[in-house]
Amino acid sequence: MIEIKNVNFRYAGLDQAGLNNFNLSVADGECVLLCGASGCGKTTVTRLINGLIPHFFKGELSGEVYVNNLEIKQQELYNLAGIVGSVFQNPRSQFFSVDTDGEIVFGPENIGLEKGEILSRKEQVVRELNLKGLLERSLFDLSGGEKQKIACASVAALLPNIIILDEPSSNLDWAAIRDLRVSMQLWKSQGKTIIISEHRLWYLKDVIDRAVYMEKGCIIKQWTKDEFFALTENELKAYELRPVLLEERYIQQFSNDSIPADTGPISRDIQPVLDDSSEVLELSNFYFTYTPPKYLFIKKKITPEDEEICDLRIPSLKIHQGNIVGVIGNNGSGKSTFLRCLCGLEKTCIGTLKVSGKIYRGRQLTKVCYMVMQDVNHQLFTNSVLSEVLLSMEHPDENEAEKILMSLDLDEYKEKHPMALSGGQKQRVAIASAIAAKAQILLFDEPTSGLDYRHMCEVADLLKKLAVDGKTIFVSTHDPELIALCCDRVIRITDGHVTEVI
Fold this sequence. Notes:
The protein is an alpha/beta fold. It is built from 16 helices and 22 strands.
């Protein structure tokens, strides 16, 4: 059982974020969903349960937290490893090995189990989570969904009674999300207690027992599973929660998955904008591989003739300027590679981009393109949110920077360190930097991962405003709601090439 009694917590250096007189009881074997807007305190609750607060994340803490009758404040983190297992939003942040086999057995090895027991546990989780095809692989070669599966396996190998998942679906494609759901259903059948902090709701319909809604560090509302999934889309939106059925309808349109016919009509059809009066961006002969062939002792330059070995191969693609283009496809299909090549981050990529009659190639692409990465921690450099936005401006303008922050609901955090913000807030800081850069083409790699419904809608509105201002936007996404809200066209990438345009 988990008992959180009268807890107040403030992170060091932050006044608003935290918990206020928080109380929560979770029974053994119960699956509880923590939901609410970004920054409401969901992740803080998970950190209390797994002991990261107060042993890793410092701040002012009062109240009591008991897990399996153990008071967290009196336990060392290593004592909790076999009791509470955590799967984080970014699985890379919890990897300790370089290969899949080593990562799965790392936990059991670290607590000193016998070799026979370690191998037995490995065999068990590989069988239960269907991971045979991922064995003996480099972690660096895995897709986002595959990394998430290995993270789940490494946690399951410790046989914890409690499993915590913090935004586990945020970077996963629809097929990987369903694999995650199967894993959760297995854990539930084994009697494990599951705490999940999540914005996406559709895949949890047959998993959770209770939903807990939070605002500003407090519990505002609780529902049983049946009560929660009986809420209408308008009621969910009033709580700034994502719809339950909208994702399923769009999965039916944008994937090969089979969805029951009673999920309702699609609310908006995606149609290409074919206004002949608008200018066209033209990509020609875009080819790239992560493993170019070697010629003697040097790497041979890729040519279109090497198409069969390329990770990205786009002979031609035309997009009208001012369009918002959704880029869809499974994890590992080449979406992020496409964006990286388009903005000039991959030096060995060949191909040209024609914009307003001018030809750009290689590093020249950085003059017209700006990319917001999927892992925004890689592009946060300064010690304040305001400084981060000013850094992207060719001519720093503090008033303009503050307007951008206000439009993204970040003005109250302008003096805070970016790394002290929640995952959704960091994402919005990166988007603010992209807006401040004023590039002609803006590229977004999963910009709404980890965002609540309201902020996702705000991102969609911003993208539409940027398009009205003449920006062309490519947005790689697994969020069908975002596609419905703002995309003019949708391209699908499969195995590194565009297979269809919707």
